[in-house]
Specification:
single chain; 446 residues; mainly alpha; Serine Threonine Protein Phosphatase 5, Tetratricopeptide repeat; 20 helices
């Protein structure tokens, strides 16, 4: 992923050995920053994602052969696009069903003709829509399985290789390859159109695209399993995708809200882990290590997300994150305002996870007993049975109330559910503390 060096195809940047200097840097930049646009342009022209990926690979291989000797073109992205288009046409000409294939492509192009870009993408009159936006909506189409949408978005728009996507979600490469193949097959067989939804469809379709990017960030922010608490590379890829999406949809306030949320949360990344990789909770974090430039950028986007009409879920979440980032410490955090924002969020996007977060905020405002009562009221919620932060939050509040035995039991439950080793280690320490305190007679009855 980002920072791991040039990559290409399934296993790496073929032929890159020995390539350095301006040529190597140009290939790296084009692949990481322009690959999505290149791929989107080819899919738009030829209507075939597999063909687009294959000729993109061939075009970069050609660049690796020619650029070291001939120099890097003034417009490397345009060079690659021209080369890839020629290779695609050559491939189609070699097919025995060339004429029939062109007829199908032309018919599909007519059916998939997008609405005027100024309405959907915020472009000015006469400006072409960035074709990456069309690829975003194709990769996140509701006809695809949720896990396939995330995999395809990372593969096509973030430029990750299949092995990299597999590593990101800790599954075998073969499993991830099957997901990607399945998604492409669905797009092809269901004739999913490669287009930006029109103004009447956009409110229904945009949340799915935003959710894909948010899901990528969530896995980077708190890895579901593995040796690390955070996957910074994955979180940064999500932020890069969110930036692209916001740039393509500047008039959509929820795209601003999503980017704001990711920036405001990611700004705390350096303070969230201790020297040994252990998680550091918000009240113990060294706020001097928070990224102030990222916070200021996020705060400005919060204003955009909350201006011009009722706020959306990402806008509200970004406002909550901003309140945390603006406070000097936990004690001076505006907990009443945070609870009020969670009340709004529960009306916009009701979920047990939001209810858990609200309960924790209420505990900070009104005391641990009030928060625990709200958490206990959620005990029958099926979606929380495998959600270890719920059990961990109960453990923390029970500990604050001096109910050692009950706190230890809650931490045991959280420990059984947690996947990432740093979180498991932190829970083991909390459990040991409660058991030791309980043996000392402090609230051992629970």
């Amino acid at each position: 992923m980002a920072g791991e060096g040039a990559v290409f195809g399934e296993d790496g940047l073929s032929g890159a050995d020995g390539l350095s200097g301006p040529a190597g840097e140009a290939v790296e930049a084009v692949f990481r920053e322009e690959r999505g646009l290149l791929l989107a342009s080819l899919v738009r022209r030829f209507g075939d994602l597999d063909l687009a990926e294959e000729v993109t690979s061939e075009a970069i291989e050609a660049a690796l052969r020619h650029w070291p000797a001939e120099g890097v073109p003034a417009r490397p992205g345009a060079w690659l696009l021209t080369t890839a288009r020629r290779k695609a046409v050559d491939r189609l000409r070699r097919e025995t069903a060339y004429a029939a294939r062109l007829a199908v492509l032309q018919a599909d192009a007519v059916r998939a003709e997008p609405a005027p870009p100024a309405d959907a993408a915020g472009a000015g009159a006469g400006e072409p829509a960035d074709e990456r936006l069309q690829l975003f909506f194709t990769c996140a189409h509701p006809a695809l399985a949720a896990e396939d949408r995330v995999a395809l978005t990372l593969r096509c728009l973030a430029g990750l290789t299949t092995p990299e996507v597999a590593r990101a979600f800790l599954v075998p490469t073969a499993t991830m390859a099957q997901r990607i193949v399945r998604a492409k097959k669905k797009i092809r067989e269901a004739r999913i159109p490669f287009r930006v939804p029109g103004p009447d469809e956009l409110p229904e379709r945009l949340p799915g695209v935003l959710q894909v990017v948010y899901s990528v960030f969530t896995e980077g922010y708190a890895a579901s399993s593995g040796p690390r608490l955070q996957r910074l590379d994955l979180a940064e890829e999500a932020i890069r995708l969110a930036r692209i999406l916001h740039r393509l949809l500047p008039a959509e306030r929820e795209s601003a809200g999503l980017l704001a949320l990711l920036l405001l949360v990611h700004a705390r990344r350096d303070a969230r882990s201790g020297p040994g990789g252990e998680p550091v909770l918000l009240d113990a974090q060294d706020r001097a290590r928070w990224d102030r430039a990222m916070i200021e950028e996020g705060r400005a986007l919060v204003v955009a997300a909350l201006t011009g009409g009722p706020a959306g879920p990402y806008g509200v979440q970004s406002a909550i994150a901003a309140l945390h980032d603006e406070a000097a410490d936990v004690a001076t955090t505006d907990w009443p305002q945070i609870v009020a924002l969670y009340d709004v969020l529960l009306t916009l996007a009701p979920s047990p996870v939001v209810a858990v977060n609200r309960a924790v905020a209420v505990a900070m405002r009104d005391g641990p007993g009030a928060g625990l009562a709200l958490l206990d009221a959620l005990a029958g919620e099926p979606r929380l049975r495998a959600y270890h932060p719920y059990a961990a939050a109960r453990g923390d509040l029970l500990s604050r109330l001096g109910r050692r035995a009950a706190a230890a039991e809650a931490y045991r439950e959280a420990l059984e559910l947690a996947g990432a080793e740093p979180e498991r280690a932190a829970l083991r320490r909390k459990l040991a503390h409660e058991e030791e305190a309980g043996r000392g007679g402090a609230g051992g009855s629970g």
